[in-house]
Structure formats: structure tokens, C-alpha cells
Write a structure and sequence with these properties.
By secondary structure, this protein is α+β, with helices and mostly antiparallel strands. It is built from 9 helices and 13 strands. The protein has helices at 6-40, 47-61, 103-111, 170-199, 211-228, 242-248, 251-268, 294-310, 338-354, and strands at 67-74, 79-86, 97-99, 115-117, 139-146, 153-161, 232-240, 274-278, 284-290, 313-314, 320-321, 324-331, 360-361.
Length: 362
């Protein structure tokens, strides 16, 4: 067996050390990705927080690059909008939006694939500066962020160097692509969570808020009224004669009457300060009026009452029908809870019905 020289042994040891360092680095990156995935799981309702955590892992924790930025795809304008950035302090962002296809980030969004530029960034046709810094970037690694499964683009994660000449190696690319995959999963989950939350607050039949949704609006509006000292009122609306329509015709006619009322609420209420919701599955509705006194609320209620009275709808025989509403008005008083406010409104609607229906009462 041939003897190995001292130089060869030294080279073998050096290779072993390098391999150990690479394995250690991989383990460290895996740990960062694992910790990131755990932290993101608790941020379902905050997309911006999720994206900031991703950039923090790349720049502050793992130090993959000197600076980083993350872009969100804006579908209506077909452009990338900067959501967050990490790195050198005091930077002035000159351009925060790119059209898809423009710049390196735009090229990634267009192709849906990772782009690595390790030298001569300024001479690359895809390069476009977006900071006011005098120095040019020396290396860029840009990765698409996609919804798992469908592959739909959500945004682009970019990391870059302006001082280091080392560029980005295969291990760093794998790590940043791992960050992008985690971001895609978390971002997609957050969007789904948001959509389900919105759907859970709306009535499927009318498109108005359901009881849960309008109750949330009541609480939020009352809290703002306490802080601002501004007035707040509610309208409690009951559709008169719904049972008669259901019995005389059928439920389709009753639904047509409800649809006529809903259309009035959608078109006649002041949009900036009114939110309407279905209080019960049948014929009761609530309107929350921010910054509105009882006198102003009575005027709005009268407008609604008259509009419903004049509205026509078809019954199940093809004939024309009309209906009316009774409305109770209540203005929130100091120290009054939402529950107490609604009790006052319910009593007011009771008085409107006792007065013969098709009335507004407070």
C-alpha cells in the first residue's frame, strides 16, 4: 500500500473540515426554517408580519445577504409592490413598484423562476435600481413566492449584496427558496383565513352582514364612539306582514319581499356611516349609524320606510305586491352597553308596531 504524503493528508483533513462546515451550515439553515415555520403558524391574520419574519430570517438571522426586499403581486395593476425591506439603515426608497417584466423582480414574476446574478449586475438587461444609493448591487438572488399546488404567484423575495464580491452559492439559493416556500404556504393560509372570516360574517341569502357580523360592527362602533365622543344610533327594522305573504303565496314571495327591503338598504343608506345586517334569519334587520344622532337617524329611517313602501316585487302568481316596515330608532347614551342599546331599539320597534306598523318610533 502506497504511503500518503503529508500534503495529501492535509488536503484530506481540509476536505473533511469543509464538508463538516457545509453540513453544519445546512443544519443551521434547517433550524432557522423550522423555527420560522413555527413562528408563522401563529400569524394567520397578519400577512405583513409573516413577510417581515421571512426577511428577518434571511437577513438578520441567517445573514444570507446584506439587504433584502419583498414584493407583493398587485393583480389589478399587474405590478409588484414593495411590502417590506431589511438591511442598511437610512435607505431612501426611490421606486417601490415595478411592472411585471421590469427589473429582476419583475422578470422573476413574469417567468415564475428563480434568477441569480452573481456579477456585473449593472450590465444585466434585467437590472433596475430601486434605491437612491450611489453604489450598484453586485449580486442578486430573486425567488418567486407561490401558492402551493396551484403555483399562483403571490410575490417575489429578493436578497442582494452591494459590498461583498462572493455572490450566492447553491446552498444559499436552496435556503432562500425554502424561505419562499414557507412564505407561500403561510401567505396562502392567511388569505384563506381572511376569506373564511369574512364569509362567516355575511348572510348568504342577502349579502348583508349576519348577526355575528353586525354585532361585531356594533361593538367596534360603540368603542369608537366612547373614544371620540361622537354620537351613534341604530335602526331596528322589522318587515311587516312576512308571515301573511308566506301563507297567502309561498316562501318565494316572502323572499322577494325581503329582497326588496335589502335593495332599499343597499341603495338608500348613507354609505360612509351606515352598516346593515340581518339580525335574525327571517324579517329582522339592524342598521348601525356611526356619528349619527337620534334626530338624524329618524330622518334616515323615514327615507327607508318610504322607499320600502313604494317598492314593488312579484308574487308567485306573477302579480305585483308591496310591503312595509316598522322601524325602531335608538341613540347610544353614555355608559350604555351594546346590549342595552339594542334593548332600547327593540322596545322602540314594539311601539312602532303598536301604532299600526309602517311607522318609525323611538
Amino acid at each position: 500500500m502506497a504511503e500518503r504524503s503529508t500534503g495529501q493528508v492535509a488536503l484530506d483533513v481540509e476536505q473533511i473540515v469543509l464538508e463538516a462546515v457545509e453540513q453544519f451550515e445546512s443544519l443551521r439553515q434547517a433550524a432557522v426554517l423550522f423555527e420560522l415555520s413555527l413562528g408563522i403558524n401563529a400569524q394567520l391574520d397578519d400577512v405583513d408580519r409573516i413577510l417581515n419574519l421571512v426577511l428577518t430570517a434571511a437577513i438578520d438571522q441567517q445573514r444570507v445577504a446584506e439587504t433584502g426586499s419583498l414584493f407583493r403581486l398587485d393583480g389589478p395593476t399587474n405590478s409588484l409592490v414593495m411590502v417590506c425591506k431589511r438591511g442598511r439603515q437610512g435607505e431612501v426608497i426611490q421606486y417601490t413598484q415595478f411592472a411585471v417584466g421590469k427589473g429582476v423582480a419583475g422578470a422573476v414574476a413574469e417567468a415564475g423562476q428563480t434568477i441569480v446574478i452573481n456579477e456585473n449586475c449593472a450590465s444585466d438587461y434585467r437590472y433596475q435600481r430601486y434605491t437612491a444609493r450611489a453604489e450598484q448591487l453586485k449580486s442578486i438572488l430573486a425567488v418567486p413566492i407561490k401558492i402551493p399546488g396551484s403555483g399562483e404567484l403571490l410575490g417575489v423575495l429578493c436578497v442582494h449584496n452591494s459590498q461583498s464580491d462572493s455572490g450566492f452559492g447553491a446552498g444559499q439559493q436552496v435556503f432562500v427558496e425554502g424561505l419562499a416556500r414557507i412564505a407561500g404556504v403561510a401567505w396562502s393560509n392567511a388569505l384563506t383565513h381572511s376569506r373564511l372570516l369574512i364569509e362567516s360574517h355575511y348572510d348568504e341569502d342577502t349579502g348583508l352582514l349576519n348577526r355575528s357580523g353586525i354585532t361585531e360592527v356594533l361593538r367596534e362602533t360603540a368603542a369608537k364612539a366612547v373614544l371620540s365622543g361622537q354620537p351613534m344610533s341604530v335602526l331596528f327594522i322589522d318587515l311587516d306582514g312576512l308571515k301573511r305573504l308566506n301563507d297567502e303565496y309561498d316562501y318565494a314571495t316572502g323572499n322577494a319581499a325581503i329582497a326588496a327591503l335589502v335593495e332599499v338598504l343597499k341603495t338608500k343608506l348613507p354609505r360612509r356611516r351606515a352598516r346593515a345586517g340581518r339580525w335574525m334569519e327571517g324579517d329582522e334587520f339592524v342598521v348601525v349609524l356611526a356619528g349619527t344622532t337620534a334626530d338624524e337617524a329618524r330622518g334616515i329611517a323615514e327615507d327607508v320606510r318610504r322607499a320600502v313602501e313604494e317598492a314593488e316585487f312579484r308574487d308567485s302568481t306573477g302579480g305585483t305586491e308591496r310591503t312595509t316596515v316598522s322601524i325602531g330608532v335608538a341613540e347610544r347614551q353614555p355608559e350604555q352597553s351594546v346590549h342595552q342599546l339594542m334593548l332600547v331599539a327593540e322596545k322602540a320597534i314594539g311601539r312602532a308596531k303598536e301604532a299600526g306598523r309602517n311607522q318609525v318610533s323611538d
